[in-house]
């Protein structure tokens, strides 16, 4: 009798444990494809590495692209960081397919190239494959003295005139890790709503 | 991130097929997990639990699999006992193996009257083969005086105080610790001196290089600016630098109009490496620059070079490059030796890149990964020694 009882108990424990393990297994993260674009030296790779909690002191200019998968808020974020050098910007379009959120990174301290970054951004918005894709703008390098505030950058990029998609601008400093998480929260929230 | 609530699940209901309360279905043959029907015949089976199929569709599925037959409690006890015995035997074996090494060492010490360091020195040839084993032996030593010595040498290498006078003191300390007479074993003394010189010279070099790397390129520093101009002049001797800023920088492979932002995490070390390559290996540098302008397999020379700095420093940091440096020369390695190593690696990468016939620069990460694997394999050979060679 006692033996049988202990068996029942054992199997209850097992079932409980299995169900518990299964609960973890049964929630495979929803995948999200994120595209990180911007001019060279905007800080895309630093943001990518920060998201993956990796060391950011050995970064070199990106030739081609980097990709990392990060788990966050029940999402599996597949983040594509494509080099921003003028020479490789023509390849950006090869990565537009099935993008859930576009992240555009601006070096807020590089005032000389605001016009150039604005032009590239406007061109991206014209892309058919990126139509209606929510866009998050990181106004990066806010830790630098001469950084323009996010509101100026929003104005420069004509964000307020956007009607066909959701957008958000986030002031951040990738090296200090400030503002990155807030931006990603918006991205996840928006993608969730869309799906 | 503050997003709460249950996750919406794509792909419809999350129940495994074949699990409904629809009465017994015989297990289908071959349908692992998915098709195996439940045992709905009303007989409780306490142990008939298998984990659902690994297809990601079967959470919550309590599937009976042929392998999970009910085991009686007695059998399970024996099973656990068996497992315990096996792991115990395994542990004993591992312990004995470890002991065997020290027993062997002691035996050899008695029979040959030589300690392990001496035996290594006498049975290996100078270079990486010897110094790598000496380093392993010194770092694994349980003798407190040797442990102290290793710590002290590491500290001196960190403070750039490692030099010939330190080597002499270190060797004396080793001779004392091991009770070796320097007169009777003069070949050992010169052998161990060279190994100590190489081991801690290498560490000191890495520390110095990492310091240079951490020094950022500064546009307001006239010395840095002069070095940048130097780089241009060495690479493009026929044309004087048109200006500090401008599109001309992309000719030698910088990204934008101001190279200053391209050194990034490699700091001045990236610049010094490129400078050495273009000055000391001018002919090779010109070939690389020419290749970088190839219509199909072209790349950006300067930023590729900065990337190679990163690779070389990584190889130094994790000790993979020791074989090359220990075989390169017997003196304390210098920055020049590192630049030379860099030039060899860059030239080798250039050949690898062209041989890979990339579609575009977008293949870079993949090709670089493969190149790094090949280079690491090459450097694992104790006889590894990179040389400048170019087609």
Task: Briefly summarize what is shown.
The complex is a heterodimer of chains A (195) and B (391). Helices cover 34% and strands 22% of the residues of chain A.
Topology, element by element:
The complex is a heterodimer of chains A (195) and B (391).
Chain A: H1 2-25, E1 30-38, H2 44-51, E2 65-72, E3 75-82, E4 101-107, H3 114-126, E5 135-140, H4 150-156, E6 167-171, H5 180-194
Parallel strand pairs in A: 1-3, 1-4, 4-5, 5-6
Antiparallel strand pairs in A: 2-3
Chain B: H1 73-112, H2 116-123, H3 128-140, H4 144-158, H5 164-178, H6 186-214, H7 222-235, H8 267-280, H9 282-292, H10 301-317, H11 322-328, H12 335-355, H13 364-380
Helix pairs in contact in B: 2-3, 2-6, 3-6, 3-11, 4-5, 4-6, 5-6, 6-8, 7-8, 8-9, 8-10, 8-12, 10-12, 12-13
Main location (chain A): Golgi
Protein name (chain A): ADP-ribosylation factor-like protein 3
Binding site for GTP (chain A): 38-45, 84, 140-143
Question: End-to-end distance of chain A, in Å?
Answer: 54 Å
Counting copies of identical and different chains, the oligomeric state is: heterodimer
| Helix/strand order of chain A | HEHEEEHEHEH
Task: From the 3D structure, determine the CATH topology of chain A.
Answer: Rossmann fold
Helix content of chain B: 55-70%
- Structural class by helix and strand composition of chain A: alpha/beta
Fraction of residues in H or I helices of chain A = 25-40%
The average pLDDT score of chain B comes to 84
Unreliable spans of chain B: 1-68
- Count up the helices of chain B: 13
The gross shape of chain A turns out to be globular
What's the total count of β strands of chain A? 6
Second rung of CATH, namely the architecture of chain A = 3-Layer(aba) Sandwich
GO molecular function (chain A): GTP binding; GTPase activity; metal ion binding
Subcellular location (chain A): Golgi apparatus
Family (chain A): Belongs to the small GTPase superfamily. Arf family.
GO biological process, one term (chain A): vesicle-mediated transport
């Amino acid at each position: 009798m006692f033996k049988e009882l202990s068996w029942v108990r054992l199997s209850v424990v097992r079932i409980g444990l299995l169900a518990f393990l299964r609960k973890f297994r049964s929630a495979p993260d929803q995948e999200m494809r994120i595209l990180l674009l911007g001019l060279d030296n905007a800080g895309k790779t630093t943001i990518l590495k920060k998201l993956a909690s990796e060391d950011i002191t050995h970064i070199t200019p990106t030739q081609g692209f980097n990709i990392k998968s990060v788990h966050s808020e029940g999402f599996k974020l597949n983040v594509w960081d494509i080099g921003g050098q003028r020479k490789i910007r023509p390849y950006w379009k090869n990565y537009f397919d099935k993008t859930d959120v576009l992240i555009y990174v601006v070096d807020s301290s590089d005032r000389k190239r605001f016009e150039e970054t604005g032009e590239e951004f406007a061109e991206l918005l014209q892309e058919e494959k990126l139509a209606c894709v929510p866009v998050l703008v990181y106004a990066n390098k806010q830790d630098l003295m001469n950084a323009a505030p996010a509101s100026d950058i929003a104005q420069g990029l004509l964000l307020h005139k956007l009607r066909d998609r959701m957008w958000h601008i986030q002031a951040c400093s990738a090296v200090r890790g400030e503002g990155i998480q807030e931006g990603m929260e918006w991205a996840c929230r928006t993608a969730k709503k869309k799906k | 991130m503050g997003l709460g609530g249950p996750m919406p699940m794509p792909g419809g209901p999350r129940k495994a097929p074949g699990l409904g309360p629809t009465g017994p279905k015989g297990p289908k043959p071959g349908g692992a997990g998915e098709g195996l029907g439940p045992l709905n015949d009303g007989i409780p089976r306490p142990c008939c639990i298998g984990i659902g199929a690994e297809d990601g569709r079967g959470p919550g599925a309590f599937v009976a699999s042929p392998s999970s037959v009910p085991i009686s409690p007695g059998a399970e006890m024996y099973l656990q006992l068996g497992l315990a015995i096996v792991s115990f035997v395994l542990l004993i074996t591992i312990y004995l193996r470890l002991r065997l090494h020290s027993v062997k060492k002691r035996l050899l010490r008695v029979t040959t009257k030589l300690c392990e360091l001496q035996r290594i020195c006498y049975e290996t040839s100078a270079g990486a083969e010897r110094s790598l084993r000496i380093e392993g032996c010194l770092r694994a030593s349980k003798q407190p005086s040797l442990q102290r010595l290793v710590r002290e040498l590491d500290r001196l290498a960190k403070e750039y105080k490692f030099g010939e006078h330190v080597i002499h003191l270190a060797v004396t300390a080793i001779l004392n610790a091991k009770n070796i007479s320097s007169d009777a074993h003069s070949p050992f003394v010169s052998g161990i001196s060279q190994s100590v010189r190489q081991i801690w010279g290498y560490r000191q070099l890495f520390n110095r290089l990492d310091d240079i790397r951490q020094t950022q390129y500064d546009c307001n520093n006239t010395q840095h600016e002069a070095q940048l101009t130097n780089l241009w002049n060495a690479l493009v001797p026929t044309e004087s630098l048109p200006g500090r800023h401008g599109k001309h920088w992309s000719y030698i492979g910088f990204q934008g109009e101001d190279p200053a932002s391209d050194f990034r995490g490699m700091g001045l070390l990236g610049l010094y490496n490129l400078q050495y390559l273009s000055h000391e290996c001018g002919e090779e540098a010109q070939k690389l620059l020419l290749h970088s302008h190839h219509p199909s397999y072209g790349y950006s020379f300067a930023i590729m070079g900065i990337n190679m700095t990163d690779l070389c420093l990584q190889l130094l940091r994790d000790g993979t490059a020791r074989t090359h440096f220990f075989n390169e020369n017997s003196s304390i390695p210098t920055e020049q030796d590192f630049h030379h190593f860099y030039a060899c690696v860059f030239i080798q990468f250039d050949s690898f890149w062209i041989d890979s016939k990339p579609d575009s620069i977008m293949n870079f990460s993949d090709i670089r990964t493969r190149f790094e694997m090949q280079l690491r394999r090459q450097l694992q050979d104790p006889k590894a020694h990179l040389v400048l060679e170019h087609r």
